[in-house]
Automatic annotation (TrEMBL):
Pfam families named among the record's database cross-references: AAA_21
Record-linked InterPro entries: ATPase_AAA_core, P-loop_NTPase, RecF-like
GO biological process: DNA synthesis involved in DNA repair; double-strand break repair
Organism per entry: Mycoplana azooxidifex
Lineage of source species: Bacteria, Pseudomonadati, Pseudomonadota, Alphaproteobacteria, Hyphomicrobiales
The protein's name in its UniProt record: Putative ATPase
Coiled coil (residue ranges): none
Residue intervals of the ATPase AAA-type core domain: 268-338
Length: 376
């Protein structure tokens, strides 16, 4: 479970830290920075994957993503991200932080790529925190088999993360465990719905426990639920509620997996994915994301209401509530209707995102950056 997050100097996020729960609902108007909160979590995952530099470069480079408002004198110009994860089964708390900044004038590296300045991963098992990875510049210190910090023989490039470099090496189980947990997060934002969208195409018949972030294995996710788990009750209920009694038809896969919809007014007609409206195909993708065979530890949805008819929002909220029984949910929306539906089904209060002196802020947040449960 992701217990807390911090983001500093990233776009509109001057400095924001918050404790998190099972369902985290953020609502606000366009331009308040809701998506930057969502994106900051994606960048933590990018650090674990080893793609932080390329993802920031794709946003326009460090000069484009840095906070441009007022700063304190002599304050380092750096993006700072932190995440705290609780492994409940092993009673271990992981804390990871990373700072990235601009390339010094005389340093090696490309002008617009981020330069990793510091990284640190610590664990806590009931006693004081123990550092297992610490990086400053290219040098990496890591906790060895003796329990002492020792210098890693390989230095990191300024644009690569020590977390990705050491996380799959097999020698550092704590680093690997944290990295694997973060890589299982799923982020869903803006499914393509054009004619050539992956959602509208058949896919190879390969067991699919979770939906890919681009939705390219949508048909395989449905086939896995229908023909391997043999349980589509929640899926069928959601589709019937959203599409006025429609039924999902999932054929036994051959080389490729495929599906279609049967509507009550056309009981003998199978509508293929290419025939469905943008809202219909997007709702089906959300259903696969939220009701898949295996539950990711974190499901993050950014404005999932896009293209959906208002009548689909209550069924969407019901799916979110169902998913929250096994996954932590992060939901960003500007739909007040969807927010109310999620609030009533999940027993949470929406965190209203606002602008405060140009920076993204959460209404009611304390000066410490924490939000008490009775204020969330």
């Amino acid at each position: 479970m992701l217990r807390s997050m911090l983001a500093e100097n990233y776009r509109s996020l001057r400095s924001i830290r918050m404790d998190l729960g099972q369902v985290n609902l953020f609502v606000g108007e366009n331009g308040t920075g809701k998506s930057n909160l969502y994106r900051s979590l994606q960048l933590v995952q990018a650090a674990a994957r080893g793609t932080l530099a390329s993802e920031i470069a794709a946003e326009g480079g460090m000069a484009s993503v840095l906070w441009t408002g007022r700063r304190k004198p002599n304050e380092p110009v750096r993006v700072r991200l932190e995440a705290e994860i609780l492994d409940e089964e092993r009673a271990i708390t992981f804390r990871y932080g990373i700072e990235a900044g601009l390339r010094p004038p005389a340093a090696a590296g490309f002008a617009f790529e981020p330069q990793i300045k510091t990284e640190e991963l610590s664990i806590e098992t009931g006693r004081r925190p123990v550092t297992v990875l610490k990086r400053a510049g290219p040098g990496i210190m890591v906790r060895g088999e003796t329990g002492r910090m020792e210098e890693h023989p390989e230095q990191a490039l300024t644009s690569e993360t020590a977390l990705s470099l050491l996380g799959d090496a097999g020698h550092y189980p704590e680093i690997g465990a944290f990295r694997r947990a973060v890589l299982q997060w799923r982020f869903f934002h803006g499914f393509r719905t054009d004619r050539d969208s992956p959602l509208r195409q058949p896919c190879l018949s390969v067991t699919a426990p979770m939906l890919d972030e681009d939705g390219g294995n949508l048909a395989a996710v449905f086939a896995t639920l229908a023909h391997i788990r043999q349980d589509t009750v929640d899926l069928e209920r959601a589709i019937a509620d959203a599409f006025e009694g429609a039924r999902l038809s999932i054929l036994e896969p051959g080389e490729f997996a495929s599906f279609g919809l049967v509507f009550p007014q056309f009981p003998k007609r199978l509508f293929q994915p290419r025939e469905l409206s943008d809202g219909q195909i997007r709702f089906l993708a959300l259903a696969a994301a939220l009701l898949s065979y295996r539950s990711p530890p974190l499901v993050a949805l950014n404005e999932p209401e896009a293209s959906l008819h208002p009548s689909m929002l209550a069924p969407l909220a019901a799916m979110i509530a169902s998913a929250s029984r096994t996954s932590q949910v992060w939901l960003v929306t500007h739909s007040e209707l969807l927010a109310r539906e999620v609030e009533s089904r999940c027993g949470v209060r929406a965190r209203r995102v606002i602008r405060n002196d140009g920076a993204t802020w959460i209404e009611g947040m304390r000066l410490s950056g924490e939000i008490a449960e009775d204020e969330a």
